[in-house]
Amino acid sequence: MKHLSSQIRDRYPCHATTPIPTQPENDLQTNGLSAIKRTMIGAAAAFIVGATLGFTTTAQGEPAADYEPQWTADGELVLPRDFRTWVFLGAPLTPNALNDGNAGFPEFHNVYVQPHAYRAYRETGTFPEGTILVKELQLTVAGDDPNGSRLEASGRGYFPGNRNGIDISVKDSKQFKETNGWGFFNFGHHAPPYAETAPAAPKDACAGCHIANATDMVFTKFYLPILQAE
Question: In 3-state terms, what secondary structure has residue 89?
């Protein structure tokens, strides 16, 4: 077997005149095994950290599990972290001033969905099991007109202000049979911080409206420009 110094001299002739200490073959094997052990320990530690944070990655660095619903021991939904990095579907608005001061949700409804659920809908036209739709409410900036609008550089309109609550729906046909396969959760209708977990809302709180007015329990018609975007 060629010594390491000979191998280096053969590959890099410019170093041929500089003596390079050789290392015994058994030392190379020992150190090589130590390096492999260090690599394996490092990889295991990285996996444990990733699992603790709720994700793992593929060889290409992409998420292996794309934001599945998380539940507490007593069945409450855990508020997803970083949902604002998901796919943004739209922001319907029903301001108080256009609804006799009594709009059910007078804020912008900023709606997000997990990337894999978005891709699945585009392929099948149906949201898959485990879909999470997050609706974060955002107040409008105070208006200067009786209809609640205000004048800004872009013109007269309604402009987003402070965040003011979160509602979430989860598709789980087995768990939510009584509400057409979707569960609804309220994490607070107020400024942050929001609740960290929430129980499923009663049927007449949210699901009833979706059953009566939505398509497959989702107001999809407001999100089609994004869901069907080329």
Answer: strand
Supply the pLDDT for residue 29. Answer: 47
Could you give the CA distance from residue 69 to residue 125 in angstroms, rounded to a whole number? 21
For the chain, give percent helix, strand, coil, nearest 5.
Answer: 30, 25, 45
Name residues of the chain where pLDDT drops below 50.
1-37, 39-64
The model carries a pTM of 0.71
CB proximity list for 30: less than 8 A, separation 6 or greater: none
Q: Return the amino acid letter for 148.
A: G
Q: Quick one: 173 exposed, middle or buried, by C-beta within 10 A (0-12, 13-18, 19+)?
A: exposed
Q: Which residue has the tokens 């013109």?
A: 155
* Pair of tokens at residue 64: 């292996």
Cross-strand partners of 183 = 170
Beta pairing partners, 150: 157
Beta carbons of 200 and 176 less than 8 angstroms apart: yes
Reduced to 3 states (helix: H, G, I; strand: E, B; else coil), residue 215 is: strand
At residue 221, φ and ψ (nearest 5 deg) are: -60, -25
The DSSP-derived string for 2-69 is: --HHHHHHHH-GGGTTS------HHHHHHHHHHHHHHHHHHHHHHHHHHHHHT--B-TTS-BSS----
pLDDT tens sequence across 166-186: 999 999 999 999 999 999 999
